[in-house]
Amino acid sequence: MQDLIVVADRIHVLGTxxxxxxxxxxxxRVAAVGNEEEVRAAALPGYATERLDGATVTxxxxxxHVHLTLWALARRRVDLNAARTLEDGVAAxxxxxxxxxxxxxxxxxxxxxxxxxxxxxxxxxxxxxxPCYLESHDIHAAWLxxxxxxxxxxTRDTPDPEGGTIGRDERGEPNGLxxxxxxxxxxxRLPVPAPTEVRDxxxxxxxxxxxxxxxxxxxxxxTGIEDFAAMQEDDVLRLRVLQSFPLTxxxxxxxxxxxxxxxxxxxxxxxxxxxxxxxxxxxxAWLRAPYEGTRxxxxxxxxxxxxxxxxxxxxxxxxxxxxxxxxxxxxxxLAIDVMGSVPPPRSMPHRIEHLQLCPPxxxxxxxxxxxxxxxxxxxxxxxxxxxxxxxxxxRSRGAYPMAALQRAGVVLAFGSDVPVETADPRPGLFAxxxxxxxxxxxxxxxxxxxxxxxxxxxxxYTEGPAFAAGVSGRRxxxxxxxxxxxxxxxxxxxxxxxxxxxxxxxxxxxxxGETVHRV
Length: 519
What we know:
Layout: E1 4-11, E2 20-26, E3 29-34, H1 36-42, E4 48-59, E5 61-66, H2 68-74, E6 78-79, H3 86-97, E7 104-109, H4 111-114, H5 120-124, E8 132-136, E9 141-144, H6 146-151, E10 164-168, E11 174-180, H7 184-187, H8 195-211, E12 214-219, H9 225-233, E13 240-246, H10 250-256, E14 267-275, H11 305-317, E15 322-326, H12 329-340, E16 351-354, H13 363-369, E17 372-375, H14 377-390, H15 402-408, E18 411-414, H16 425-434, H17 454-461, H18 463-468, E19 486-489, H19 498-501, E20 506-511, E21 514-518
Parallel strand pairs: 1-4, 5-12, 6-7, 7-8, 12-13, 13-14, 14-15, 15-16, 16-17, 17-18
Antiparallel strand pairs: 1-2, 2-3, 4-19, 8-9, 9-11, 10-11, 19-20, 20-21
Helix pairs in contact: 2-8, 12-13, 14-16, 16-17
């Protein structure tokens, strides 16, 4: 493979080095950086040149929290994110119900956007025969019709599972809503997509990710590792994948000697994924004080503290890091205390996923714990109104405290939680810098003291994920010896106004020196 010199108006290599104009790529890695003359002198004869006039290059971005397979398949199912009202959502389901057979699947309904929770009766009116299973915007609740409830044997006599709730009407009948672990009553019965369907969907999603400037992902769902391994074997995987695995597979992982950090260039094993609570939107995030307007609603704790503590210890002893979902402040505090008392394996640190409500008394404790804050700034754009309503203004001062956590010493790794939110990292960069919602407000930003600089936000998508994956010496920067994973933008994200971050374009993406996207 011949050497390649990439020349741009500005190249942010990150680390402690100033921007440069040229990067030399050799064998899929960065071989030299500097001005064009310096880099040309280091190149082997017969080199090629990629000139990106008018562009700014950064390290390739990594989305540190994706449900990659779910997103890939959701792109082919009913999209309720586009439904602004309940009536729009019902109409979308009606259109899908009229063609095909079997389960109608979809994702993206939002009670805050629709004004009320949907029920089975809304679906029964347009799709009475085919069973429907439609996951909420935050994936912590599901909406079924009567046919779906019948298909899974859910009746008024079905008890709530531990860590979950079956929605019921005033007569005690299931109303078509399932929260948290109650979703498993259905998901264990849903048909498994054919391998060819999954592969095609993943390849489409990979192309979409490249077009957004993504060169890597941290996949936090229960499935995918076999599919990614097969794509790697066939030499079609062009995303760096860190794959966590669910708590239900921990015993098997320990038995076969699986460790965090196992893998190679494309697929690498992460930690064991656990859930301590639910989500803000479903009012299932576990809180230290009750939700606003209630006396005894603290949300849902989905994993007992003793079981969580024992699991983190047992996993670490076997060389496995812990990846823990914690949104409410009670869940966040438990996660910090437990993981801070159990040293992670040398391969990679423990991490908290979401870390949304983290009051000031926990900032220093989070830093001392050594955990990575795996946060999704784009959630802030959706959650401002919900947080003010459910947590209250004063408590929301500890919501998404990205700058405070960074100042305390917490490494931040940013992601999207796609398909909960868009996979596009530009809104995430904007949210981290401007702290404003999709409607542009509030003016001046929501608790602007927690806003990051543009450079700190970019590092959250580059250096932070690399640290979280235990590959700080190989990815997240464009320095000699690092993988040549890079993206070119039509403007400089570190010099752009916050609003411009939403509209800048990715004009080229390289993974391992191979161009995978070009405008």
